[in-house]
Amino acid sequence: MNYCHLTSFILIAAATMLTSCKTAQDISASAYDECPENKQPVLERPAWPNYDLHDDRSFAAFSHIQTKPADQPMHHLRCEDGSITQGSIVLYRCKDATYLCYDWQVPTEQDWFFWRMTSGSAIIDADTGDRYLIQSHEHFPLDQCFWIYGQSGETIRLVSRYPPLPLSVKRVQIYEASGESRRWLTGTGYITEPVDVEELRPHAKAKNLRSKTSGRIIL
Description:
This protein has 219 residues and is an alpha+beta fold. 15% of the residues lie in helices and 26% in strands. It is built from 2 helices and 13 strands, in the order H-E-E-E-E-E-E-E-E-E-E-E-E-E-H. The protein has helices at residues 3-31, 197-200, and strands spanning 42-45, 60-63, 88-93, 98-105, 112-115, 122-125, 131-133, 136-137, 146-149, 155-162, 171-176, 190-191, 195-196. The strands form 3 sheets. Strands 6, 7, 11, 12 and 13 form a 5-stranded antiparallel β-sheet that branches. It starts with a helix and ends in a 19-residue tail after the last helix.
């Protein structure tokens, strides 16, 4: 091999290596999301030391909750019982954790309402059955009702943290564990039908879930 051919070979090999590295970096970058923004809400009133599920005066109260980014669509999911989740679910697949964002439109006539997230909730690998249990409900308590007020008509965002999902996890089910019931709170949990992880990530297009199947049009 003469000098010219050797130089050309080295240049081609180097370009190939750089292209491979760039492709690997692109794939790695696209596989993960940045952590979702989740500002600290204002604690208007702490929970009573003797918190009581049946006494709503004992609930903590919060205002100035994080809202859904305007550029993200609403990802409503279908549950196994055929119902549709009231709120929209967005999944951030980060390297150190998985974040589930629950986006809910506050009715204009409902300035005060209470909420609860229960321990035991999980992201389930739909193909293996592995459960990634909830670690925290950021800024808010687990297993206690809390008041949210002052955001009538806004789409608020509640963020929960879970263990990181391996890249091998392709389809998931979202499981909300049941809890105690009281007036205006059934405590009933839910589990969604399997959904592709990519369909839940921040910039995925929203799907229309009005009809489960597309049947024939008969005149």
